[in-house]
Each structure stands twice: as structure tokens, then as C-alpha cells.
Specification:
Strand order of the largest sheet: 2-1-14-13-12-11
CATH architecture: 3-Layer(aba) Sandwich
Largest sheet: 6 strands, antiparallel
Keywords: Hydrolase
Distance between the termini: 58 Å
CATH superfamily: DD-peptidase/beta-lactamase superfamily
Strand content: 15-25%
Number of domains: 1
GO molecular function, one term: hydrolase activity
Protein name: Serine hydrolase
Pfam families: Beta-lactamase
CATH class: Alpha Beta
Structural class: alpha+beta
CATH topology: Beta-lactamase
Helix content: 25-40%
């Protein structure tokens, strides 16, 4: 007879086998349940106001190498003036006509950034709460909002001519040349639109020609055939998208992207002093797609990280597919006029020419200064680095971070 708390040897062996079988069955059941869950249920998404931080070594990351990468980012700060108005005057303003600042500018913080690996924060440096100009990363926010219009049927086809979507009396796309422009051309910076918007002629942005007399007489290219980085035409995309949405683009961005991803309330998206239109009886400001003449998106590193993390997770946040996977596939595909550029501002890495240390599949959203969101699905890695040097510094930083990850 067995005594409470004591099993004869034969019964103990039987009990041990039963216990092992139950453990295996429970583990198998749990595994099946986890596999049956949607990806969003297994993936970490940072709640509003927080991002889980873990010791790097807990994820197999070499702490010493990671620290060296952070030290490099800090030491590689862009040496240009922190006052962005001074930078504008001494760069674009030194070689462009119509260089007057017509939107807000700011004085930036020192170099700062975040490194997210497998969804968790493993490193940070500098004042990541500073709300600074992000310059041309604003273009990526803009093309995302245009993509939402396509996703929701306000734009039927990105190959449609834009003129068909403009209200009566809008002369933006009149004429034999401009009437051929399609949404795809604006998104890829291949529209070659000719005209003046908000007091800035298209030719005055990064002017072409041997002498200033050549600038206004630039050659016309068939829309879609020639890539040209041009903020006047990006601002045209912003105005055209505003006419489609019929409400301020910052409102669309906030409601459909920034609030769902848990962004802070501190970011702002500005236009110019003279970029106001009357829309359905209301005065509405058309925003800018960068900080070339001021304006654009002012934002902190945390919110940039959330925006980048949304695309690291293929446009999904928790249970919501905020950005269409089809749109993302188009955005990250190089155009015929520039294989290294998708939709603005998706910088691609074919042949690893732009970033030799990164995989070919890596994508960056970049703005002047240098502001960068680095998205690396192959390594489940996200880097936000602000105010790093304009040369090979980004490539070197990426190489140092990748060297710290488990090999």
C-alpha cells in the first residue's frame, strides 16, 4: 500500500512517464496555438509612450561592438551649423535663385538616434526627444498619405493622369507637357513638371545649365523618362494629394498613421507662409515635402522610429494593415529612370552600391542634415540616426551595427 507522499518504485516510474508525456503534449499544443496566431499577435509593437528596452547581450548582440557603433555615430556628427536657416543660406542659398525662406526653420539638437533589434530597443544616444526638422523624410510621409488615397480608392490607379483629379479651374496640369503627368511620375520624382508653385519656379531648384542664363531654359523631358530630385514638384504632389483628400494632409497622417502607431503629440507638419488655398470654403495650408525653403515635418527620433517600424513590419501595426502591402511593394521598387529610388523618399540598395555594408534589400528614408531611417528586414533591424555626416558615415555606422549582431 502506498503511503501519502511516497510512491513504490514501479508506480514512480509510471508516474514519471505520464508526466513526460503530458509535458510533451502541452508543449505541442502550445506550439500549435502560437503557430495559429496571426503574426501581429507574436510580434512586439511598442505601446504609446514606451518602447521595451533589453540588454543587448540578451539577444546575442555583442555589447562592446554595439557601444563602439554608438560612439562612432556620436563622433560622426555633421559639422554644419545647428541653425537650419544658416545651413540653408550657405548651401542651397549660395547657388540657387529664389532662395528666400518662406516656412519655419529650427535649431537642431546634437547627433542622436535609436537602434531597434528584433523589435526591442538595444541602444540610444543623444537627445532623442528633440523635435527637429526632418527635411526630406517628409517626402516619405507625403507619399504614404498619397498611397492611402490610392489604397482607399480616392485615386483609382497610380498610372492615371493627375489632371483628371484636379478641381475645375486648376491650371496645374495644363498644356501639352504637364497634361501627360501621372501619379507614378510625381511619386518617383520623374514628372519633369514645368511651372511655378508658391513663388518657386521648378528650374530654380538645383538649376541645370552652364550659366544662370541657361537655368530658365532647361530642356524638357518626357514625363516618366528622367529622374530629378526637385522640391517644387514634390510640393506639387502635396497640393495635388490635398485636392484629392479635401482635408489637411497632417490631419490624414495623424488619424490614419501616427495615432494608430502610438506616436507622440509633439510632431508637426508645416507648409509655407504663402501655401494657403481655399478648399470647400475653408482656408487650408498645403504642406511641404521637405525643408528646402523651410517647413516640412518637425519630429523626434521616437516618432521616426515608430514610422520606420511600421514599414519594417510590412505596413502592419497590431491587427491593422495600415499601409497596403501592394503599395509598399511599389514604393520599394526602383523606377526605370533610377533603379536606386522607389517612391519618394525610398532609397534602395541594388548591387549594394549605396550602402556596401548593408544587404541589397535594405531601404533608407533620408533627409538633409543627415536624417536617416534605416530599415533592414533581413536582420530585423531598424536604425534612426539624426545629424550624421553626409559622406560614408551612414555606411560605416550600418556596418558597425551589423558586426555587433549575432553572426
Amino acid at each position: 500500500m502506498a503511503i501519502a507522499g511516497h510512491w513504490p518504485q514501479g508506480h514512480y516510474g509510471c508516474c514519471r512517464v505520464i508526466k513526460q508525456e503530458l509535458t510533451v503534449r502541452c508543449f505541442s499544443t502550445l506550439l500549435l496555438v502560437l503557430l495559429a496566431l496571426p503574426l501581429s499577435a507574436q510580434t512586439y509593437y511598442p505601446p504609446r509612450g514606451d518602447w521595451a528596452a533589453v540588454p543587448p547581450q540578451s539577444l546575442g548582440v555583442n555589447s562592446a561592438k554595439l557601444a563602439a557603433a554608438v560612439d562612432y555615430a556620436i563622433a560622426s556628427e555633421n559639422p554644419a551649423a545647428k541653425d537650419q536657416a544658416i545651413v540653408q543660406a550657405t548651401t542651397f542659398g549660395a547657388k540657387e535663385p529664389y532662395d528666400q525662406i518662406i516656412g519655419p526653420m529650427g535649431v537642431r539638437a546634437a547627433a542622436n538616434g535609436l537602434i531597434i533589434y528584433q523589435g526591442k530597443l538595444i541602444a540610444r544616444w543623444g537627445d532623442v526627444d528633440s523635435v527637429d526638422m526632418t527635411h526630406s523624410i517628409a517626402k516619405t510621409f507625403l507619399t504614404t498619405v498619397t498611397g492611402l488615397a490610392w489604397q482607399q480608392g480616392l485615386i483609382r490607379d497610380l498610372n492615371d493622369k493627375v489632371d483628371a483629379y484636379m478641381p475645375h479651374g486648376t491650371a496645374l496640369y495644363e498644356g501639352e507637357h504637364n497634361s501627360q503627368i501621372r501619379w507614378q511620375h510625381l511619386l518617383r520624382q520623374t514628372s519633369d513638371w514645368q511651372g511655378t508653385l508658391w513663388g518657386k519656379p521648378d528650374w530654380a531648384d538645383r538649376p541645370e545649365g552652364k550659366t544662370p542664363a541657361d537655368w530658365p531654359n532647361r530642356p524638357l523631358r518626357t514625363p516618366g523618362s528622367h529622374y530629378k530630385y526637385n522640391d517644387v514638384r514634390i510640393n506639387l504632389l502635396a497640393l495635388s494629394t490635398l485636392y484629392v483628400w479635401r482635408k489637411p494632409l497632417p490631419e490624414v497622417l495623424n488619424q490614419q498613421i501616427m495615432q494608430p502607431i502610438g506616436a507622440s503629440s509633439t510632431w508637426r507638419w508645416y507648409g509655407y507662409d504663402n501655401s494657403w488655398i481655399e478648399l470647400d470654403g475653408q482656408k487650408v495650408q498645403s504642406v511641404s515635402g521637405g525643408g528646402h525653403w523651410g517647413g516640412g515635418i518637425f519630429i523626434n527620433a521616437w516618432d521616426l522610429a515608430r514610422f520606420g517600424y511600421l514599414f519594417l513590419r510590412d505596413g502592419q501595426w497590431q491587427e491593422q494593415q495600415l499601409v497596403s502591402k501592394d503599395f509598399i511593394a511599389m514604393a520599394r521598387t526602383g523606377g526605370s529612370a533610377n533603379a536606386e529610388y522607389g517612391f519618394a523618399n525610398w532609397f534602395l540598395n541594388p548591387g549594394r552600391k549605396a550602402l556596401p555594408n548593408a544587404p541589397e534589400t535594405a531601404v533608407t528614408f533620408q533627409g538633409a542634415g543627415r536624417n536617416v531611417i534605416y530599415i533592414d528586414k533581413d536582420n530585423d533591424l531598424l536604425i534612426v540616426t539624426r545629424w550624421i555626416g553626409n559622406g560614408d558615415e551612414l555606411n560605416q555606422l550600418v556596418g558597425k551595427v551589423l558586426a555587433a549582431l549575432p553572426q
